[in-house]
Amino acid sequence: MPLLIAALVALSAGLASGQADPGFSPSEVPPQDRAVIGVWMHDAIQSHGQFAGARIWTRLELRADGEAVEDYFVADPALSDLPAAARLLATWTSGSYVDPEPAKGIFEVIRLAPYLSSTFNPDTGRYTNLSGLSLPIFRRFTLSPSSDEMTLSTSAFLGLEGSATVLSFPDDAEDRRFVRQPVPGTAVGSVSWGRLKADRR
Fold first, then answer.
1. Does 3 reside within a domain?
2. pLDDT at 49
3. ∠ at Cα 82 (38, 176), nearest 5°?
């Protein structure tokens, strides 16, 4: 009986505070109508990872069909014909994330489910692919009032879909400023989607 009373008290407190269950909730807005759709660019000296110490231009394309491409360039792609040094293909959606630590609150996030990672080999002129990626990653974001800039965090793994374990957004996640780009073509550049997907097989 004491356990039942404690559970009822906890439930009542949660209802009274209006706090939602921790975890990710997809947006109800149709993907094609979401303001984050488009091509976004960021450049900075990388502090860690594969390109630590190098200036990298990151181009992120979020498509209305739920596909995403994130390209990493070692030279400004607006001034250079160099292909992306590395590329990540994923499916994406956006929504809100209720952090299990109440003090951190609720974030707007982009959820990416990578399925192909590619590194360009200059000797062959082709990409070396690593497929079978499955762990979803989350990136916290905010849009400027004009929707021409987006503050986007570095990636974080917050748990598997359907899992009872919900992780808190890491305190050391870095926020990066992305600027919306004109879209004369796509972020895939000279390598077609068909070519990339064919290379997976």
1. no
2. 61
3. 45
Report the alpha-carbon distance of residue 113 to residue 67 in Å, rounded. Answer: 10
Confidence of residue 192 (pLDDT cuts 50, 70, 90): very low
Q: Is residue 20 part of a domain?
A: no
Return the CATH number at 150. 2.40.128
120 and 127 Cβ atoms separated by less than 8 Å: yes
Q: What is the tens place of the pLDDT at every residue in 150-163?
A: 999 999 988 777 67
Strand ranges (E), 8-161: 23-26, 38-45, 55-62, 67-73, 86-98, 106-121, 126-131, 137-143, 149-153
Angle 128-186-90 (CA atoms, 0-180°, nearest 5)?
A: 50
> Where is 176: in which H helix or E strand?
strand 175-181
Q: Which of 67-71, 166-170, 171-175 has the highest mean pLDDT?
A: 67-71
Task: Report if residue 16 sits inside a domain.
Answer: no
What's the confidence (pLDDT) of residue 19? 58
Q: Per the domain annotation, does 78 fall within a domain? A: yes
In angstroms, what CA-CA distances link 2 with 8, 14, 86, 115, 174?
10, 18, 57, 48, 44
pLDDT at 191 over 70: no
pTM score of the predicted model: 0.77
Domain that holds residue 93: 37-200
Total structural domains within the chain: 1
